[in-house]
Amino acid sequence: MEKRQSQWSSKVGFILASAGAAIGLGAIWKMPYVAGQSGGGAFFLLFVIMTICIGLPMLLAEYIIGRGAQKEAVSAYKKLMPSQPVWAWIGKLGIVGCLLLLSFYSVVGGWIFIYSGVSVVGQVIEPAQDPGAFFGTVTGTPWIALLGLAIFTFANVVVITLGIEKGIEKANKVMMPLLFIMFFVLVIRAVTLDGAMEGIKFFLYPDFSNITGESILYALGQSFFALAVGFSCLVTYSSYLKKDVSIPQSAGSVVGLSIFVSFLAGLAIFPVVFAFDMEVTSGPPLLFMVLPAAFGQMPFGELFLALFLLLFLFATLTSSFSLYEIVVAALVEKFQLSRGMLTAIVGAFVFIIAIPSTLTYSTLGDVTIFGRTIFDATDYLVSNVLLPLGNLLIAIFVGYVLQKEFVKQELLQGSHVGERYFNVFYALIRYVVPVVIIIVFVNLLIQY
User: Where does the secretion signal sit in this chain (predicted)?
Assistant: First the structure.
């Protein structure tokens, strides 16, 4: 396989970029409120098990495809199976999924930009400010929500235009270390609050009496979301990977960082929520409504809220970079146009298709699709249909379509793991992962 012109300059750069793709809304926004609604510590334990047993094999599968082909997502499947071009639809499904995901992901990213900007001047948690009313103002005022969407889109376009090494890798090398530093500061402050121990116990003490079949399904879905697997984003990222880099070691590092960030998110949020007697099952508004109210009751609350929002912003951006890259890389491969022009086109397209979700909380609030708002319907389609479907197809492709020797060679090349590691991975990707995904997929459709 030929070497790609663009490559990661180092293994660390690739790991940080992959971790950045994984560590976003899933780990910091979605994990706390889903855990709050699904059993706390028991849910987190299930999430860790699912991430290691199901998410890790899927991550390895995407790495094998990408580095093995040295092509972006659509071309990778074509190159590995030229006699069966139908498999290229996995990459095309990934592109459609990423665009749909960006259509509501960018909306939340815009909210975070607005919150971050306002928090710098100390306006989010003024004594007279009602966090719920402020959230309603940000999301319910069309020009404010659209401004946030535009800023978030522009930030992504700038970084993606610069390319792999100068754009994505450099941004992640700055943002990811800062993310962990700010996380540690927030965790230390959170766990030292009076009454914080109740929140720590809720998050770390497994109470399986609160676990239901739905909780198990959510745990698996969260593991997919937290690792950014299923849309072939990491097929594209790993296509820039050098052959002497260990895929198992890189995947293990990304999984470890993702679990660790989810762990830190719980420690940063639940002690604060319990210390100030907030509602732990608040759902998606938890970070935007509950936490500003809680931070407003502690000394230097505005400073800690600004730190948290900045952390949240970094994580959201590093994750959205991977969503943009899969689309831009596919277009660069297909059309003889500059990367900058194609990135701008993609950014403009994402902005346009994100407008309906942006206006869900204002002028389009009464518009529903199968009983759901535009924002919620898009989220459901991506998270509960396209994401499981993408993971299932990738598992089948690696486990049953690619030659076993090719998979084995690509997995072990550049690594120190032995054949036993491969045998475990191959058994999981062939027999365990597809069955579990099908069960989850069918159950989610039945629930709908």
Answer: none
- Residues 341, 86: contact at Cβ < 8 Å? no
pLDDT digits (tens, 9 = 90+) for 398-442: 999 999 999 999 999 888 887 899 999 999 999 999 998 888 777
* Count of residues making up the chain: 448
- pLDDT tens, residue by residue, 287-311: 777 667 667 776 777 777 777 787 7
Cα 239 to Cα 13, 236, 310, 406: the distances in Å are 14, 5, 30, 16
Question: Which residues lie closer than 8 Å to 422 by C-beta, 6 or more apart?
Answer: 407, 408, 411, 412
- What SS3 string covers 32-76? HHHHHHCCEHHHHHHHHHHHHHHHHHHHHHHHHHHHHHCCCHHHH
Tally Cβ neighbours within 10 Å of residue 111.
25
Residue 202 phi, psi dihedral angles, 5° rounding: -60, -40
Question: With the C-alpha atoms ordered 67, 68, 71, 74, is the resulting torsion angle positive or negative?
Answer: negative
Q: For each of the domains in the chain, give its residue range(s) and CATH number, in order of start.
A: 11-447 (1.10.4160)
User: Is the full-model pTM beyond 0.90?
Assistant: no
